[in-house]
Structure formats: structure tokens, C-alpha cells
Amino acid sequence: MQNQYLTLDGISKAYGIFTAVDNISLDIGKGEFFSLLGPSGCGKSTLLRMIAGFETPTAGTVVLEGADVTELPANRRPTNMMFQSYALFPHLNVARNIAFGLKQDRLARAEIESRVSEVARKLQLQQLLERKPSQLSGGQRQRVALARALVKRPKVLLLDEPLGALDKNLRIETQHELMRLQKELGLTFIIVTHDQHEAMTVSSRIAIMQSGRVLQVGTPDAVYEAPVSRYVAKFLGEANMFDVDTAQREGDRVRLTLTGLEGQFAAKLPTGVSPEGKLWLSVRPERMELATSGAGIPGVIDDISYTGAQRHYRVRISNGAIVDALKVNTGDSQGFERGDAVVVRWLEDAAYLLGE
Ligand SMILES: Nc1ncnc2c1ncn2[C@@H]1O[C@H](COP(=O)(O)OP(=O)(O)OP(=O)(O)O)[C@@H](O)[C@H]1O
């Protein structure tokens, strides 16, 4: 990771007896595009608001560039939050909306004008400065909301579900726009999202949260390829889970038997974890191989769905469970038909041993 820039050390936030954020420690590097990812209510907004200074932690510290900012109010921190576009002032034009925060800070008029025109140029808003928010498209409103946050020249930009209001195509376009801007400006972005695709697309690293805690932190690749638990694996896409009967550790690998299936299987252990309690062997659907014969678990194609780019096979295997296999549509193969007898198998490095 890059240099430690923003450090959260043992941060908690309790509301009465309810703990929304529970003892989180994180190091975020300068220039990172960092995502807080988790389901509704897991505490990601509360954590972001503590970084911003809108909430005070009940325990722990926030250190930015070596300075403890835990008790500093939001307007005195070098952070700024981008709010959803519906928070724009409807009666002010784009230029005035962007300038609003700078006026509040009592900057000189010439300084305000030059900053507004600079940010308008970066966000391609020059032609729209006289318009009111109601005269803009959703995507344009979003850019104004972003301009309003960036014009204050924060060192860390905080974004809480910034693209939630956009339709799918615009959302993808705006994700790329955000990535471009983040690189161009060299700023640190911290984004809150419950959308795993979004987090995977934009982030240098992701923190996956559940019930006020961080379960795993890593690059999109690392968390997808080597999740530390069943929960993380399922949250970041699809995963086949085979019930484990017995597990025997051999270094960073495990020898396994699986419920209702003959023979021995092997899996990797996620780094730094020794899963306990109920265990599963996990294989991603795109790593699942289907063949007509040879070694593997026998099964029958139960259902096929075709999504254009991919074929999704549901295979009923010999212990009665359903296995999902995804195949890229290369156009040159007919694939399998419903009712075909197949064997399913995977390369050993595609399998992980996971606990709850
Ligand atoms: N001011 C408050 N008083 C009491 N409880 C709160 C307060 N703010 C948040 N909470 C609770 O803390 C928990 C975490 O809320 P938070 O908004 O951080 O979740 P989130 O992960 O951002 O969810 P969402 O994606 O739905 O916004 C929730 O159960 C919420 O009800």
C-alpha cells in the first residue's frame, strides 16, 4: 500500500446501546480510490460521516496526514463530502451552486470566480453555468454536485452512494468519469456503496463491511479471488459452496471430504485465516469446468440460461445439490443441452476453504 495518509484507529460509534460502527481500524493511502462496501445498515455511512467530521466517534481516533482530527469540526478538516444531486439549490444557477461553499468561507470574489471556472472546465460544465438545476439532465446535475465538492479543494473527497440516483448506463459512464478525475486531480476518494460491481470497477481497494465491522480489505482482485469467508464470497458475486465433512490441514492447503460426494478434494486456505465451525469448499461459477467424461463429479444439466455474453448452466450433481457454471459465449460451440450427462470439476487453485 501507499504511505499511510488517513488512519482510522479503533473507531466506534454507538447510538445508545446500539453499536453502528464497531472498532474499525483502517489505513488509507494518499491517492487511493477506496470503497466501503456492505449491505444497508452495516455502518458505512456512519463511518464516512466520522471521517468527514459530521459525527464524533464514541471511541478511537481519525488521523489525517499525521494530525489527529477526531475532534475537529467538518468545516475545519481537509475533507469534503459530495452530496447527492438532489441537494443542489433549485433557485440558484449552476455557477452559484458551485460557488456557494466558497462564499460561505468568505473568499474574495475574484478567487471564487477563478475557482468556479477552473472546476467547470475540468467537469465540462462551462456551457451550463447559467442554467438552473431543473434545466439539467441527471448526469449533468451529478457533475454539478461533484463540482460543488471539488471547488473547495479537499485533500480527501468523500462520496456517499454518489451514483445511486443514476440509471445503469449513466452510472457506468459516471464511474469512469470519477476514476478519470480522481487520477487527474491526484486526490484521495472514499466512496460508500452497496453495489459490488461499482466497488470493483472504481476502487484501488475495498473494505467489505457487515454489522459495523470490516471483514476484509484488499484490492478488487484479492477480495474476489481470495475471500476470507462465505459471507464475503457471496457478497462479491456468485460462488458454489460444497458442504465439508472432514478437513485436514497440510500447510496452506487442506484435504477435504465433501457431504454426499465420493473421494478426496483439496482447497486453499485464505491467507491469515483458519476457518472454524461449519466449513465450505467454494468455487466461482466461471472456474467450474464442464466435460462429457473423465474425472469429476457426475451430474446432469438441469437448466440453461443464455444472457448473450454468457451461458449459465445449472447442474444437478450426484449428491442432489445444484452447481452453477458460467461459460463465455465464444460463438463456436453449441455447449450442452438440458438433460445431458456431464462431469463437473475445477482446477485445484480455484477452490477455497471458507467458514461462515
Ligand atoms: N443518528 C442515529 N441514531 C440512531 N441510530 C443510527 C443513527 N444513524 C445511524 N443509525 C443506525 O446505525 C446503523 C448504520 O447506519 P448507516 O447509515 O451507517 O448504514 P449504511 O451501511 O450506510 O446503510 P445504508 O446503505 O442503508 O445507508 C443503522 O442501523 C442505522 O439505523
From TrEMBL:
Instruction: Name the PANTHER family on file.
Output: SPERMIDINE/PUTRESCINE IMPORT ATP-BINDING PROTEIN POTA (PTHR42781), SPERMIDINE_PUTRESCINE IMPORT ATP-BINDING PROTEIN POTA (PTHR42781:SF4)
Q: What class of enzyme is it?
A: translocase
The record's note on quaternary structure and interaction partners says: The complex is composed of two ATP-binding proteins (PotA), two transmembrane proteins (PotB and PotC) and a solute-binding protein (PotD).
One annotated GO molecular function is:
ATP binding
Q: Where is the signal peptide?
A: none
Family per record: Belongs to the ABC transporter superfamily. Spermidine/putrescine importer (TC 3.A.1.11.1) family.
> Which InterPro entries did the record assign?
AAA+_ATPase, ABC_SmlMolc_Importer, ABC_transporter-like_ATP-bd, ABC_transporter-like_CS, Mo/tungstate-bd_C_term_dom, P-loop_NTPase, PotA-like, Transp-assoc_OB_typ2
**Keywords, in A-Z order:** ATP-binding, Cell membrane, Membrane, Nucleotide-binding, Translocase, Transport
- Name of the protein: Spermidine/putrescine import ATP-binding protein PotA
Q: Does the keyword Kinase apply?
A: no
Reactions that this protein is recorded to catalyse: ATP + H2O + polyamine-[polyamine-binding protein]Side 1 = ADP + phosphate + polyamineSide 2 + [polyamine-binding protein]Side 1
Q: What is the lineage of its organism?
A: Bacteria, Pseudomonadati, Pseudomonadota, Alphaproteobacteria, Hyphomicrobiales
